[in-house]
Amino acid sequence: MSTVMKTTRDVKGIGLSIPRPDGPEKVTGQVQYVADLSPRGLLHAKLLRSPHAHARILRIDVSRARALPGVRAVLTAADIPELKRKAPTRAHAVLAIDRVVFAGQPVAAVAADEPAIAEEALDLIDVQYEVLPVSADPLEAMKPGAPPVADAGTEADTSEAQAHGSVAGVTTEAKPAKAVNISQQARIQRGDVAKGFAESDVVIEKTYRVPMVHQGYLEPHAVLAQWDTTGFLTLWSSTQGSFNTRSEVADVLELSENRIKVIPMECGGGFGGKIRALCEPITAILARATGRPVRYVMTRREELEAGMPAPQVIIRLKTGVKRDGTLMAIEGEAVLESGAFSGAVLAVSGVFLASLYLWPSFDVKGFEVLTHKPSIAAYRAPVAPQTIFAIDSQMEQLAKAIGVDPVEFRLRHLQREGDKMANGQPWLSNGGAEVLTRLAEHPLWKKRAEWKASSPKGRLRGTGLSLGGWLGGLQPTGATVRLNPDGSVQVLTGQVDIAGTNIALAQIAATAYGIDVDKVRITTGDTDVAPMTGLSAGSKTIYTVGVAVMEAAKDARNQTLEIAAKELEASVHDLEIDNEKVVVRGVPDKGITLAQIGKKGNLYMSKVQPVLGVSHPAFSQQAPAFCAQLAKIEIDPETGEVTLHDFVVVQDVGKAINPLAIEGQMQGGAVQSLGMALTEALVYDDKARLTNPSLLDYRKLTSADLPNIETIIVEKPSPHGPFGARGVGEPPIVPAPAAIANAIEDATGVRLTELPLTSERIALAIASAT
Amino acid sequence: MRRFELILPESVDDCVRALAQRGPETKLLAGGTDLLPQLKNGLLKPARVIDLSGVARLRAIEPADGQGLRIGSAVTARTLELDNIVRARYLSLAESGALVGSVQVRNLATLGGNLCNAAPSADMAPPLLALDAEAVITGPKGERRVPIAAFFTGVRHTVLAPDELLVELVVPTPAPHSGGNYLRHTPRRELDIAVVGVASQLTLANGVCTKARIALAAVAPVPVRATAAEQSLEGQPVTPDRIARAADLALEVARPISDQRGSAEFRRHLVRVLTRRTLITALARASA
Amino acid sequence: MAKLVLNCTVNGEPAEVLVQPWDTLLDALRERMGLTGPKEGCGTGDCGACTVHLDGKPIASCLLLAMQARGHVVLTIEGLGRPGALHPLQDAFVRHGVPQCGFCIPGVLMAAAALLTENPHPTEEEIRYGIAGSLCRCTGYTKMLAAITETAGAAAGRRS
Ligand SMILES: Cc1cc2nc3c(=O)[nH]c(=O)nc-3n(C[C@H](O)[C@H](O)[C@H](O)COP(=O)(O)OP(=O)(O)OC[C@H]3O[C@@H](n4cnc5c(N)ncnc54)[C@H](O)[C@@H]3O)c2cc1C
Ligand code: FES
Ligand code: FES
User: Which residue among C22, C59, C70 sits closest to B1, beta carbon to beta carbon?
Assistant: First the structure.
């Protein structure tokens, strides 16, 4: 599919660093997000949330709240006929029915004239709870007899795994009958691990822990809902997938999907946290109850207490190697804490642990465990950073233990295209080895010994690197490309632009059609008008929608040429598009402009068909994408403070459609990865209540904590992506935790296995080691 | 935020009158950087709020008739960070102001709010303790002065009565050959709250330490002075060994708790490290 | 409770608006004056998305009551520059491809503009601290630094 369209000169299209066209609107504050919309008659919604992680609701009295002037609706589960027990997903659990299963779960909802009145109404709602014992720790929750989270008979939710199109072929195991909180269980196995360990010269066993972390998008969840008099619902939503939102809301409200229109507003960050519906259903229900437009914007505290964070992941790994560097065996368990509802991508963890490197024998188990915490969702390459933290830390230690170069050790064992993954599927074409090799050539890696030796008095310097990746998602999609009467081109998709993808898609359309990108306009349509499309997730927008746009543009180009052929009485094969004109090759003055063709398609009584290129592909081949990162650090051993001096990201993007946008993705992803590595954690007490529900205490990295992030783009074309492109968004969030842990060990000799690698953990580990 | 009545006095007297009329349902508002989050999170639900931003006197920095400097309670952290007199005489206080929040917060956050909010981690408290400052308080019964060391009575509690107002701080001018330093530890470099904060202030005469002050934040319910450590330094030259011993002694007053910002163990560890480091800097500054 | 009259200057024009006593300046700008450029990312001072200038200084407008701005001069992102007449920082942000989701951008720009007014030749470190009160989750800050550095350099170039 990587045919480049012939033109007499290169059009302005793919490969150029073109700033996003919405830049001027964004820097002037003109871009509209959901919270910026205030239709006439607007009401404000607030939710009453449970202070307890697990409790029975004995009684709710809303009478005083309903009586407060300015309050237009106060709803509990009893007021919503569609609600069912055994909610399979968070979206279905609109309001708690008679049991709350995490602190922050909505119990009642209010719509009022002003936010302040809605808040006062919440104060007036009287809820009596019977507090129940909690499962706050996943390892405890796995045990028989732990306080149960789900109602008996609730199904595991694997749609998240499907959304990320990650892995097939992992055997799911029947769970032990008494371990009520194990919601999914899987195992991958090959060879004889016991024999492998017996024959190993070095066996290392460690347990790695990564806490729940929040996607941290700066715009909190927000929805505006309005019904018309015919019972048609319009939702303005901050979502990563308007069609998915429509389906979920239709399912919860038992409405036909063609009774709902979802208008995707500018999304102020999602990173996986705005895939699943969260507050859309309750906002729609409040709007229905009041007959008024209702806006709900989550507070940051609600986001942190009751958003959909990434799971806590606890991985025990035991690995054996021979002194000559031969890998022998790997064995372990991955426990994914999913919170109150099932939905973790369990298999990703198993596959990365057992099949990133070539283990002759492996036995890896995975468990999804429910606890009384907010249910989790995807977060940029879900579970990959956590898994790579474990396996890459382990590889580094094995290399050190047998005294071989850690990069060579990784490269020697890295699985390549065609090698069988643990689930039996072959690895597809990827640039894993290329990015690691490229990073190892970087002067900062070559000079790591000098950096270490240059440590000033009272400081310790070190360098670390790591390799990680993402398998790539797939989802059917569609696009149309039109020729306008003035000769400009119009692209329509339903794909929400969360990563600068629209400019890249416009560039793809430009190159495929043969027109400069300035003449291409791309629109994200709402669910009423746009071709159906998938989520903006799984690093698949360019890889899949890019194909649709490319094919639709080619289709439009062919239609254009056919019309021109008739008009010019020439053969299609002799035509080309040059400078917004279709010309006969070799006869420069014989031609027709795109504008003339476009006009004919829109003239009264014209017999010329309008140009409308269409493509609506489905896909079967993923494109794994790898990223290697290097951290050059300095540590104050007394305070544990880490100074990041340099950070390098090398990534295989297949083909850089828009290098500027790609660099932005690499830098942003790397900094999220560094946050996970160094400071971020949702910290719960033993009653499963969040102890740090603010951005002051949930510490995303600030500009003062960071160096410039150097980016190096590697292009190993994918066989199926548009012009060879691969997914870009997710890989850069994967490697930093392991790279930092490796750098800390290089600097201090101390190996840390629990994220975040805070100053406290570093200082106390150094203190106890000396 | 819930609804409340807003009162906009223009003088200290107006304030005192407004406070006298209203009961415990009333909250004073300075920069709002502590109060507004508390209102928004529903921790406080006052019926009335008195805004101090219209009272010019509270924002003044002026000489205190030979007693040092008067710093109005509504002087912002940003002003302390940048003010030339404050920087010249009370560098540790300027340093603590510079550490608060971010510049967007420092332009609002006031000295009085930091003290009256009485968080154990309040950054501007330890330097004032180390500088022997006095709080000037006014209320229906007139003005009174309280040494800052006696100002804090517990977590989020001070000697202020509900009808009283902190007007200003009087900070004595340090003797010649004095130097101070404030350091804190935070997981992030900006936008963070002290895990531990330490202010040290030393005065030298002929190579001998004539006065030592060490004050700690976030290791006890209130900011505390490490008096044993101070005494161990006074009356003799300040040597690395004595600094190390003082850092050990500072631990005696630390009664840290473990919370999500840091464990008690880490806090104790930091008291030693930061006490030593602030004393080294204070010594260098006093000797300069 | 009766609404109050807020008199102040907003983006160079005198403004007289009715506000609630409990409205923050951010609420008043967004909900009562239609200036939705400043964003609410946290409401508690922790993210910088709501940054505006009060008498030329950057503040978290989510922490100031609207009435506390009485008699003061307020500048929002809408007053910094307009499409077609961008402030040099805005122009640099566009050219460097800084904005991704864009939610932090108005706040970052107001912090950066205030920084350059106070300190026209900041070091990299000073820029990093100057905008540290504005969290951005998308960009990793690298391109922001480049855009601000370039603007400061260009300003210096013009002066000399
Ligand atoms: C993002 C962020 C970061 C922060 N970082 C730090 C930090 O690094 N270090 C730190 O120490 N603090 C920090 N804080 C807390 C806060 O900014 C400071 O404590 C600040 O100094 C409080 O001052 P204020 O004027 O905003 O107080 P306000 O919020 O206005 O008031 C605080 C309390 O003091 C009372 N009060 C105020 N003035 C008076 C007076 N004159 N008389 C009597 N009572 C009064 C009020 O009624 C209220 O109870 C941070 C806050 C935020 C939001
Ligand atoms: S919204 Fe004001 S600082 Fe976050
Ligand atoms: S661009 Fe999205 S938060 Fe900064």
Answer: C22
Whole-model pTM: value is 0.97
**Which domain-ending residue is among C26, C51, C80?**
C80
- Is residue A496 a part of any domain in this protein? yes
Residue among C8, C18, C52, C64 with most chain B CBs within 10 A, to mutate: C64
Q: Which chains share 3+ C-beta pairs under 8 angstroms with B?
A: A, C
Ligand 3 centroid vs A668 CA: distance in angstroms? 9
Q: Is the CB of B30 under 6 A from ligand 1?
A: yes
DSSP code per residue over C13-53: EEEEEEE-TT-BHHHIIIIIS----S--SSSSSSS-TTEEE
Q: A659 CA to middle of ligand 3, Å?
A: 18
Tell me the residue range of the domain where A562 lies: 23-31+475-615
Cα pseudo-dihedral B110, B115, B120, B122, rounded to 10: 30
Q: Which tens digits make up the pLDDT trace of A141-188?
A: 999 999 999 987 666 666 555 544 445 555 666 656 668 999 999 999
- Ligand 2 probe mutation, C25, C27, C36, C44, most atoms within 8 A of CB: C44
Tokens for A656?
Answer: 């850089």
Torsion angles phi and psi, residue A589, rounded to 5 = -85, 0
The β-bridge partners of A48 are: A108
Interchain CB distance below 8 Å, A641 and B185: yes
Q: Is C102 in the pocket of ligand 3 (CB under 6 A)?
A: yes
Place of tokens 């504008």: A595
Angle at C91 (CA atoms; ends C89, C96), nearest 5 degrees: 95
Averaged over B209-220, what is the pLDDT?
98
Instruction: Kindly state whether residues B130 and B198 are assigned to the same domain.
Output: no
**φ, ψ (nearest 5 deg) of residue B62:** -150, 160
What's the pLDDT at C103? 98
CB contact C88 to B (< 8 Å): no
Same domain, B164 and B224: no
Task: Tell me the three state secondary structure of residue A243.
Answer: helix
With H, G, I as helix, E, B as strand and everything else as coil, classify residue A629. strand
Q: Are A507 and A579 within one domain?
A: yes
Which of C29, C47, C137 should be mutated for ligand 2, with most atoms under 8 A from CB?
Answer: C47
Distance from CA of C144 to the nearest CA of B (A): 17
Q: Which residues of C113-149 are buried (b: 16+ CB within 10 A; e: fewer)?
A: bbbbeeeeebeeeebbbbbbbbbbbbbbbbbbbbbbb
Looking at residue C115, which CATH number applies to its domain?
A: 1.10.150.120
Residue A519 lies in a domain: yes
Ligand at minimal distance from the CA of C100 is 3
Under DSSP, is residue A636 helix (H, G, I), strand (E, B) or coil?
strand
d(C-alpha A308, C-alpha A373), whole Å: 10
* List of chain A residues with pLDDT < 50: 1-8, 163-166
Ligand 2 centroid to C135 CA: how many Å? 9
Domain co-membership, A499 together with A606? yes
Residues in Cβ contact with C103 at an 8 Å cutoff, skipping those fewer than 6 apart: A33, A217, A218, A219, A268, A269, C39, C41, C49
Is B131 in contact with B93 (CB distance < 8 Å)? Answer: yes
Instruction: Among C19, C48, C80, give the residue marking a domain's end.
Output: C80
CA distance C99 to chain A (A): 6
**Do residue C92 and residue C65 come from a single domain?**
no
CA of C42 to the centre of ligand 3 (A): 14
Whole-Å CA distances, B168 to A127, A625, A662, B9, B70: 45, 61, 54, 17, 6
Q: Are C103 and C144 in the same domain?
A: yes
- pLDDT (tens digit per residue) in A747-770: 999 999 999 999 999 999 999 998
User: In total, how many domains does chain A have?
Assistant: 3
Q: Say what the alpha-carbon torsion angle A262, A266, A271, A273 is, to the nearest 10 degrees.
A: -40
Nearest Cα to Cα of residue B247 among B262, B263, B266, B232: B232
